[in-house]
Structures are given as C-alpha cells and as structure tokens.
Amino acid sequence: FTVGGLANWMPSFLIRYTGVEAGEAGTYFCAVTALAGLLSAIAGTVVGEWAQRRSPRGYLLAAGTSLCIAAPFILGIAAAPGVWGTLAVAFGALFFVLFTLTPLYTALLNAVPASMRSSAVAFNILAIHLLGDAISPPIIGTISDMTGSLAIAVATNALPVLAGGLVLLLVKPAVAAAHDAAAPAPAPEAP
C-alpha cells in the first residue's frame, strides 16, 4: 500500500511542498526508491537471518520491528523539511518498509510445502498489488481532496504500516497465549 502510494504521489508532493521542478521530482524520488530498495533487501536478508537464528519468530519480529520504525519516517515526510530533508526522510520510510520483503518472503517460503511455493508467492504478489498498489493512489488522492492537504494524505500511510508492524509483533504471541490457556491441564502422574 505505502510504496505504491508514495511512488504515485511523492513527485507531486515534492513539487507542491518543496518547489522542486517536475522533471527533477520524479528523478530524485526514483533514485531514493532504488537505493532504499537495494540496501533494504540486503539489510532485510542479513537481519532477518540473524533474528531467525535467535528465535523461531525471527523473520516476523524483524519485519514487524522494521514497519514500526518506518511509521515515524512516513509522518516525517509530511513535515516537508525542504527538498533534501524530505528525500532523506522518504529514504528512511522506504528503507524500513521495503526491508520487510526479504524476511516475510523467507517466512512464507518456509511455511508452505515445496510443491506449493510458487503458488504461494504468486498469490502473495497478487494480494500485495490488489490490496496495495492498485488502491493506494486513489485512496491517497481522495484523502488529499477531502482534507485539502497532500501532506495529510501522505501521513495517513503511517497507519497501515504501524498496524502491520504491530500485527507481526503481537498477534502470534497472543494466539499462542490463548492456545496455551485453552489447552487442558496435563493429567497428574500416577503415584
């Protein structure tokens, strides 16, 4: 959701709030996105593997933490701290959102049988695009129209990012705790 929305709206944001020329806005944001994507893929792989060696939930913890870190960066974009400041904050937002891809894909591939991995990845990519890239630009545009502020519309991207991070960090332990509480007590040992 967030990456697709930012890819669509950040050039306009840079033009409106920082005074960058139209040709430069797309070029700058494309460069920031490419660099953030490359570095986050490397970092997500390294950190995800490190976390997974320490916990069976390591991939999910790494991804959830990264999304929670990304949310304040997304809010920071809305502050539009000048051209270079906005691009730096956008880099942070994109880095921490894109960081999640490698740990989450690894977790997905580890969770399904080998014979179903290609279908699982295909379905995941379809879901990401249907629920993200396809709907985020019009939603952000509608919020911008309703509020009269593209900055507010961009800032709202922090909400699904933070929610996703919290789900990754909290749902699994909550489900495990509920399962453990509902499990029958072990039978006492015979004397």
Task: Describe it.
By secondary structure, the chain is mostly helical. Helix 1 packs parallel to helix 7 and helix 2 runs antiparallel to helix 3. It is elongated and about 80 Å long. The model has no long low-confidence stretch (mean pLDDT 87).
Give the tags.
191 residues; mainly alpha
Low-confidence stretches: none
Distance between the termini: 60 Å
User: Care to count the β-strands?
Assistant: 0
Determine the fraction of residues in helical runs and give it as a percent range.
over 70%
Order of helices and strands: HHHHHHHHH
Structural class: mainly alpha
Main sheet attributes: strand count, strand direction, barrel closure: none
Q: How does the overall form come out from the CA principal axes?
A: elongated
Cα radius of gyration in angstroms:
20 Å
Number of helical segments with 4 or more residues:
9
Q: What is the beta-strand fraction? A: under 5%
Question: Averaged pLDDT, please?
Answer: 87
Structure summary:
By secondary structure, the protein is mainly alpha-helical.
